[in-house]
Design goal:
single chain, four-stranded antiparallel beta sheet, 23 helices, elongated
Length: 596
């Protein structure tokens, strides 16, 4: 069985191509050719939702509206202005891109349930616009569209059209697969975890959200263009909210997180709907849209028992692609350039009178301290002392009400988390933030996001291979540095807590920082895991790394810290060496409520 799935991984795409050619050559009924055409056309729109919703975590009900833009643009230009369908495709893509940019800029700043509600709103708006414009034929639509031709050769509507449609679909799937398996793809996958981790790695989350929104819309536009010239007519019915929901259903059915799940989900849904429309009226004795009831039940069952979709069952059995194979060869890649590091004793971080107010609550009250090159400074205090708020003020998650934060003599006060990362400050999180379904190596490579510059087009055309090799070599180097060199290809979600904490440190080191901020790295660790963490921290200090450590484990901080800052009720209580902190009556009073 394993050998069968290995062959499927290696020969799956060539086999699919040969099967499509065989279907076109063999005497297959025209009905099945038509169905395969519809499946290919719809799969393009669903593929956009896989990228947007399944991978990026952005729910949209408006995909059908972008299909409508592609269909109506080519229909209007082909009939009213007698333009070539190929030229109308270019214009349609342009209109779609502009529309998606504007809508994305407005709606993608929303979160929670507001985003899908917004997509419903503009989806309905575009649908009723199509149905009420005289130029577009209102609800009757536009008829008698010309067929597609290339150099005088008619593509037609059946077998040749099937090859053309599926060629575009497979190229799109290959392009999206390559995109997700790249620097930009790792940033897109990080969107599902929220913006805080991605921004801390230097990812411009809004830019990537808009980017995948536009890509999904462009795929839908091509789907609409194909649909219009296949049907030779368009009307608003196939571009309403109901169809948008069907596209989402197809994505969920096939596996919203898998590129090939788009085809699987579309094929299963289309074929099942066709068969149910024949069988259910015979069983019930009445005609009607009873298949909708069945699909509702199926959706509930899929969400309950197969939340990752049908394709997940296949993907789990496919052998994982390893990054150290000879085709990728990252082990021999050139190292990434390094940033200039501070000299020993240089002040790396200076916090001056920072204050943070939340309404009438003063969470941090005029805190002062410094971190010098090659030092580990502990920031400690009882629960509610303001440590995490101070940490977030330094890392750009929060903006201070007053005061200043300087990094190597440059003010970084008020910079966003992405800007702080660009300066050379990296961080981990109190609650581990990683991408569970990516490998350890891929998770850590995300930390080197700012050290690459190749975009989506380079990834789709595989022009980013040299850069990817260098990024993965850096990730492997940092994993070896923290003692995880043997776990490169493990799924991050399968790691124990101690290894996940070390993964976060390795990911932060991939940015080549001069200052490392660790937020409770020992939380939830067992004794041996803490000992491994202590060894890593000592090693980093010996190599000149400056570290600001927020931690509740007193044994750990007393063991590794050079200096400590104790906070209580948002103020600095005392600063000194570990021995001075241990001897302080004020510290004992803060922790125990008494000086004795």
């Amino acid at each position: 069985m394993n050998r069968l799935f290995q062959r499927l991984r290696a020969w799956g795409l060539p086999t699919l191509i040969m099967a499509l050619v065989g279907v076109c050559v063999l005497p297959v009924p025209e009905f099945w050719i038509t169905q395969l055409n519809y499946i290919g056309i719809a799969s393009l729109a669903v593929l956009g939702l896989v990228l947007l919703t399944g991978v990026g975590g952005l729910t949209s009900f408006g995909q059908a509206a972008f299909v409508g833009i592609g269909a109506y643009t080519t229909a209007y230009l082909s009939i009213s202005m007698e333009w070539s369908p190929w030229l109308s495709l270019v214009v349609g893509l342009g209109i779609t891109a502009i529309s998606a940019l504007v809508l994305g800029w407005i709606t993608l700043r929303m979160s929670g349930h507001y985003l899908p509600l917004a997509t419903i709103a503009w989806g309905l708006s575009l649908y009723y616009t199509m149905g009420n414009l005289d130029a577009l034929g209102k609800y009757d639509g536009i008829l008698n569209l010309p067929g597609l031709s290339m150099g005088g050769w008619q593509i037609g509507q059946q077998r040749v059209y099937l090859l053309f449609t599926w060629a575009l679909l497979l190229l799109a799937c290959l392009g999206v697969q390559r995109l997700l398996d790249s620097r930009g793809g790792r940033a897109i996958r990080a969107l599902r975890t929220g913006s805080s981790m991605a921004e801390a790695m230097g990812v411009n989350t809004l830019r990537y959200k808009i980017g995948i929104f536009v890509m999904a819309a462009l795929l839908a536009c091509v789907s609409g263009w194909l649909y219009a010239h296949f049907q030779r007519a368009v009307n608003p019915a196939p571009f309403g909210l109901r169809i948008g929901i069907e596209y989402l259903f197809m994505a969920v059915m096939g596996g919203a997180g898998f590129v090939w799940g788009a085809i699987a989900g579309t094929a299963i849904t289309t074929l099942l709907a066709d068969q149910l429309q024949v069988l259910l009226p015979k069983l019930i004795g009445h005609s009607g849209n009873y298949e909708v009831i069945v699909f509702g039940v199926v959706l509930v069952l899929v969400l309950k028992y197969a939340p990752d979709g049908i394709w997940a069952f296949v993907d789990r059995r496919l052998p994982a692609l390893r990054r150290d194979d000879t085709s990728f060869a990252w082990t021999s890649a050139a190292p990434l350039p390094s940033r200039a590091k501070p000299q020993a004793g240089e002040v790396v971080l200076q916090v001056q009178d920072i204050r943070k107010e939340f309404g009438g609550l003063v969470a941090v009250n005029n805190i002062n301290f410094t971190v010098q090159a090659g030092q580990i400074v502990g920031l400690i205090g009882p629960n509610g002392a303001g440590k995490s708020t101070t940490f977030n003020l330094i890392t750009g998650v929060l903006a201070p009400t007053s005061g200043q934060v300087s990094y190597r003599g440059e003010s970084i006060t008020g910079l966003a988390a992405r800007g702080v990362a660009q300066r050379g400050i990296s961080r981990t999180f109190q609650h581990v933030k990683l991408i569970a379904d990516m490998t350890v190596l891929e998770n850590v490579a995300l930390g080197a996001h700012l050290r690459g510059d190749k975009g989506a087009l380079s990834a789709m055309l595989r022009l980013d291979k040299a850069e990817e090799q260098r990024l993965f070599k850096e990730a492997a180097t940092q994993l070896t540095r923290v003692g995880m060199g043997a776990q490169l290809h493990e799924l991050a979600g399968n790691l124990p807590m101690g290894s996940q904490r070390l993964l976060e440190i390795a990911r932060a080191l991939c940015n080549d920082p001069a200052l490392l901020l660790l937020d409770e790295p020992a939380a939830g660790l067992r004794f041996k895991e803490k000992q491994a963490l202590i060894e890593v921290l000592r090693q980093l200090r010996s190599q000149g790394m400056s570290i600001l450590l927020v931690e509740h484990d007193m044994d750990l901080v007393m063991d590794v810290c050079d200096r400590m800052v104790v906070m209580e009720f948002g103020t600095r209580l005392i600063e000194g060496t570990p021995s001075e902190i241990q001897a302080s009556p004020a510290v004992r009073a803060a922790y125990l409520g008494t000086e004795h």
